[in-house]
Amino acid sequence: MSFDKIYDKLLDPNFLWKSYFEISNKKGVNNETLDGFSDEDVKNIINKLKDQSFAFKPFKRIYIENPNGKKRPIGVPGPKDKVVLKAMSKLLVKVFEPEFLNTNHGFRPKKGTHTALESITKWSGTKWFIQGGIDAFFDSIQHHLLICILSKKINDKRFLDLCWKAIKVNYVQFPNVNIEKRNVIDTSQTLSPILANILFHEFDLFMDKLIKDSQDSGQTSKVNPEYKKIHTKISNLRQAFLPSSKSRYKPFSDEKKQNRLNEILALEKLRRKLPSTIKAEGYRIYYVRYADDFLIGINGNEVIAKTVRLKINEFLNSKLSLSLKGSKTKVTSALTSRAYFLGAFTRALTSRTNDQPNRKNSVTKFNRKVRARIPQRYVRCFVPIENIVKKLKEQGICKIYNFRNRQVIPKRKTSWIFLDNEQIIGKYNSIWNGLLNYYSFAYNRAQLNFIQYLLLHSAACTLMDKLRLRSRAKVFKKFGKELVVKKANGEQDKDVKFNYQTTLKRLEQFNTGKKDDKNIGLPYYVFDYAIRTKKPFNAQCSICGTNFNVEMHHKRPLKASKTDNTFNGIKSNLARKQIPLCKKCHSKVHVGSYNGPGIY
């Protein structure tokens, strides 16, 4: 199916207004904001789109430092340009989203990091991982190739020309205000996620072909003859103890019975050391991708894994003009090592006994305790405890002397000492709750207890310095083991405490299907969805009630609001973040001459 009139959708004022409500209020190059955005602005945009004279202003480029010390460029387009970019993004999603494969989990509806990690746990027999990333992806995109891929589905030249303008626009380099040409797509651009998915869809199709070829390679395993031989012998020896076999066997003496039982036990012990199946000629390939990071599982030998890596590198170089990131792309054993993907370690459980505890109340007829049996090479995800501790150190929450021996000391967070007590606890809770929510899938979730200890005692250290107490013990004596602090108004029902978890048992739960629909069904998200999608056009001025020259007034940012953090406070902020005002009343508000009822 081709789309030859997709550009006409951009000329719909209702569609532009919906796009306006879906973008955040950030400043562009000249500190321009969307304050005062009105029907007149929409008409001006549409008129320029009609005669194809619309041009994007240079983007503001800033740099954000990554944990590895390198700086990542971020491009900030002008707010009014973002309305058009958002509208273009929505149209591209409508065109290309049905074509994307299930192995793609980045920037898609009802998909995210948890759905990507959940798919990994369904891989069976995995022996090797290929963890990979694209080197300087947004700096390496070939614009002509991207437009060529877009033209396969879109036959509207006007829309393709607008896409070309968007990806070729210059940027303003800060702090030195120099307008420079660019050959990259800025990572914060509204179009970037969908454009990246469109380009990487070609790579997904290539991997899908490799997966189908592996499925036609034959069986991956066959019965181990040694295992089968011992298993048959055990079965034959057990026949003599079955009630139905009494007529075929002469009665055994107690000594012969015991000798036969000892032989069965010895054979069972030998059988446990052997795999029930051995490798066959076939192999399997598994694949998952999130943005420009991907993970491949191989149920085969190392030669196959390295061959697949070479094929991937060759395809990216020849077809997409991209290259693998050397430091980030490597072949690792799923049995003896681990792969790092989307903030979690993944590895295959290699034993039917060593990776599982004893089952409770699970014994044989002979009162022998048995362990839970799990499939060989079953992939699971783990919390990277050391990585988290290092990040806490970077944030000034702890000191690391020797992590292997757990010589990690919690310390005060100096920059939070001047906050209120409840704000301090809230800050630590935000970190802790984020970790609990994200790592709900972790196989080693219990190890988060160490992180809880560091955060709890760092909070105690911070309160100790703030209140000038002598020790952490004094803090826990004053506020209890959960650090329950009272708010300034003294209301007990609004006490704030650290979210202390008495147990962190294994859940293996993935939060799936809740990424782009914002968990619609919960009251907060239902309200948020209603606010963000309501129609502002033909609205009345909130002060004088007129319908003439109504534009949108942007109140102060949500984070700067003095409203409390309760549900009603958040609801109030969301409902009144953008207020329709006529041009005359809007001018009065900005110059400070308005003295009527509060609109904040």
Q: How would you sum up the global shape? A: extended
The helix content, as a percent range, equals: 25-40%
- Rg from alpha-carbon coordinates: 31 Å
Mean pLDDT: 81
Q: Structural class, from helix and strand content?
A: alpha+beta
Main sheet overview:
4 strands, mixed
Description:
With 600 residues, the chain is of the alpha+beta class. 39% of the residues lie in helices and 16% in strands. It has 18 helices and 20 strands. It has helices at residues 13-21, 39-50, 79-96, 113-120, 137-140, 143-151, 157-168, 192-215, 225-239, 254-272, 302-319, 385-394, 421-438, 448-467, 472-479, 523-533, 567-575, 583-591, and strands at 37-38, 59-65, 71-76, 128-133, 171-173, 178-180, 221-223, 277-279, 284-290, 293-299, 330-333, 339-341, 344-349, 358-363, 369-371, 378-382, 398-402, 407-410, 550-554, 578-582. The strands form seven sheets. Strands 3-2-5-6 form a four-stranded mixed beta sheet, with no helix packed on it. Helix 6 (143-151) packs antiparallel against helix 7, helix 8 packs across helix 11 and helix 9 (225-239) packs antiparallel against helix 10 (254-272). The chain is extended, with a radius of gyration of 31 Å.
